[in-house]
Amino acid sequence: MTDIRPRPNWMKPLQADPAAVDAAFQACVDVYRDHPAPTHLCRQCLSEEMEKQIIGAAHLAQQGKTPSPQDFAQIYFEHPDCVGGLDTIKLFLPHGIRTMLSGRPPNGFGSYSYPEVLEANLKAGFWFWPAKLIDPVRELAARLFWDWFRDGRYDWPRPEQGAEDMIGPGDEIMTLCIACLIDPADLIGALTTLKTTQSDEALSIAGSFAPENPFYISFETAREPAKYKPASDKIAVSLAAREAQAALSLVTPDWLRAAFWRHEAQQPKLAADLSEYEKYYDIKTAETRQRAGDPILTDWPDLPRV
């Protein structure tokens, strides 16, 4: 068992009673809609038709309306500078999150869970945006967490589940929560105590929900030494290490055995996954133990907000 150390001062506790999902989402829209819409986009990357669609969708987002995801999805597959810069990424953030968590991407864009949305925001320096932008997203993430893992609810429209998505949006919600700097130890701790199908499903396979290091930070160039990219790498490693320490401390063979008995009769597939995890615990947690040994930042990097 690994002890859970005191929470670093830059990680945030899991909010116990966040606003309802519609109110939390609207708070995000209200904060982000003030960013300017792009006036032109990179014509080497985007056709004239795509440019018109994205700019039109941006104007809807500024009005607080929900644009069609087909009209702006391409921004998550281009460098932010090619689609209007940080302002464009910020303007669409609430709608991008909702798309990421709503099932199949529009028109075949990306992979099933649409992780490019979160990845694009991290590349745009999300961790270094002003607190007034991050805080409402964190509250939205906390509400999605409780609605899904405790109550089995997901109020946003999404396509009918297919074989690829039988467990719902749980993985994406966890990654969003951790990306919002909610303490992974709080998240894992809550999952181990809820004892619902959704919460036990999330812990039935060894792995990590923490977001990966962004490949680059879009506003840094090769003309000067990078500062935000190394800092982002340390943040990502710290979040994954904190999550791993909590998993080793709380998701023990005894916990897995008890979870198995909770689901043996009604959820045989879930019970089988839990049983296999317990049986091969040492093998399945090898990478988790490795991550748990990585360094964790004590203090937040001393860099300006963007």
Task: Characterise the protein shown here.
With 306 residues, this protein is mainly α. The chain has one domain. The protein is 50% helix and 0% strand. The protein is built from 13 helices and no strands. The chain has helices at 21-32, 48-62, 86-100, 116-123, 131-150, 170-179, 184-194, 197-202, 228-250, 253-263, 268-279, 281-284, 286-292. α1 (21-32) runs antiparallel to α3 (86-100), α5 packs antiparallel against α6 (170-179) and α7 (184-194) packs parallel to α9 (228-250). The radius of gyration is 20 Å and the shape is globular. The chain starts with 20 loop residues before the first helix and ends in a 14-residue tail after the last helix. Residues 161-166 have low confidence and may be disordered.
Q: Spans with pLDDT under 50 lasting ≥5 residues? A: 161-166
Q: Quote the beta fraction.
A: under 5%
Question: What is the count of helical runs?
Answer: 13
Determine the mean pLDDT.
Answer: 92
For the terminal residues, how far apart are their CA atoms? 40 Å
Radius of gyration: 20 Å
Instruction: Report the strand count.
Output: 0
Biggest sheet layout: none
Roughly what percent helix? 40-55%
